[in-house]
Specification:
Elements lengths: L1 E3 L3 H11 L5 H20 L4 E7 L4 E7 L2 E8 L3 H10 L4 E2 L1 E6 L6 E7 L7 E6 L2 E2 L3 H10 L6 E9 L1 H10 L4 E7 L2 E2 L5 E2 L5 H6 L3
Parallel strand pairs: 1-11, 4-5, 4-6, 4-8, 8-10, 9-10, 10-11
Antiparallel strand pairs: 2-3, 6-7, 12-13
Length: 206
């Protein structure tokens, strides 16, 4: 299932990262703030276990996140969301999946992967700013599905209808949270209106 967050705060940050006039530092900081919105939304969808907490004044029944979390940024652009998610999930471990898109076929090719050990108590959260064709997301999820896990989720900043449809058809059990859903993909596989190439804008590549 793909869920669009929306909201005034997110729209404000999106107006910054969408603008062609936004420089690298402001782009990075706005991506980080959107990442915090996404991480909080993801946290609300996680399984929890009851616990009892002793405060200086009394005891109270509360909840703690079930199991353990592994964050999986899709290289390069997923790195832009990593620190925001570590701010919300400071105990999370991190795996990496490197994919390079073939600009002719628009299909991803893997060039790197490394993940911590997982168990049936592990929740894996894929971080990829753009859900365009969803080819990179599909490739990462297919890779991760071979590993023991409890739950798989994903967080994206902008999605396209084409990517949303693919995820809901092929991976309906994966809970995908996006900040915004845009109009369509252009012939080059870029989201319109979108924000351009997230990785290039994050890291200053031409």
């Amino acid at each position: 299932m793909v869920t669009e967050l929306g909201g005034t705060g997110i729209q404000h940050e999106l107006s910054i990262i969408r603008s062609v006039d936004t420089d690298i530092p402001r782009f990075r900081s706005a991506i980080h703030r959107i990442g915090l919105h996404l991480a909080v939304a993801v946290s609300a969808r996680l399984s929890s276990d009851p616990c009892t907490v002793t405060t200086p004044l009394a005891t109270i029944e509360s909840q703690r996140i079930h199991g353990n979390i592994i964050l999986v940024p899709v290289l390069r652009a997923g790195l832009g969301l990593l620190q925001a998610f570590l701010d919300i999930f400071p105990d999370a471990r991190v795996g990496f999946h490197g994919l390079r898109r073939n600009e002719q076929t628009l299909q991803p090719a893997e060039y790197y992967s490394r993940f911590p050990a997982t168990t049936l108590q592990t929740t894996m959260i894929v971080l990829d700013p753009m859900l365009a064709t969803a080819g990179s997301m599909r490739a990462t999820i297919q890779h991760l599905q071979r590993l023991p896990h409890h739950k798989m989720m994903a967080a994206c900043i902008i999605g396209a209808p084409e990517g949303k449809a693919l995820m809901e058809q092929e991976h309906p059990a994966v809970d995908v949270v996006v900040a915004a859903l845009d109009s369509h993909l252009n012939p080059h596989g870029f989201i319109v209106p979108g924000l351009g190439d997230a990785g290039d804008r994050l890291f200053g590549a031409d």
